[in-house]
# Entry
Amino acid sequence: MHPERNLKLTIQYEGTDFEGWQYQPQKRTVQGVIQGAIKAVTKQEHTIVGAGRTDAGVHAINQVANFKTTCPILPENLRRGLNSILPRDVYIKDITEVPLSFHARYSAKAKIYEYRILQRKEPDVFLRRYMWHVFHPLRPDFLKTCLECLIGEHDFSSFSASGSSVKSFVRKMYDASLIVDGDIFIFRFKANGFLRHMVRNIVGTIIQLDVKNKDVDELIKIMEKKDRRAAGITAPPQGLYLVEVIY
# Structure
């Protein structure tokens, strides 16, 4: 029997045709597809643990997962073997051996998400899987001011998915910024943790406020109410990317 090892995977996937990260019987999920590939290569059953449970349609540039195994295959050889049989919309960028105490979710200190919008009158069929098309003109200065209000430690109850069972809705937002490149708007968020649908609810709310020509004070009022019903729409999943997990 080989000694137990803990392997850390860095994963990229295009989430359009997945029912999210988390394994679900009879459904195509990222976790399920990777676990199937690991079983095919190692001839052993393994459950991988992800840093975050992205929803259906959400993408990842650097998702992190780990699993413990007694399989003796070298990490790089395992990576090559997995990528040779994984579908084209998921790719293992790196596999490294880490201490047994490492946990992809609980060891994380912060995460970075991006949300991307195409702001123009006409849609682009080649970008429809990767951005939210907003035809209404947006005010970059207004959006940036709204994002600045989110920085710091706040109760984000108003931006959490309804029915969430988390113990605390308080999160610390280290960065909330906007990059405008022509007609592409990139919202960037870095926090010590994110509630379910938090980024999509934030983006949907401030876009809705912008379209209605509201003032930034409206966003502050929404946050103070600590009630999801006070906020705006949930932005669609295809614009959201898990960019980095920081340990």
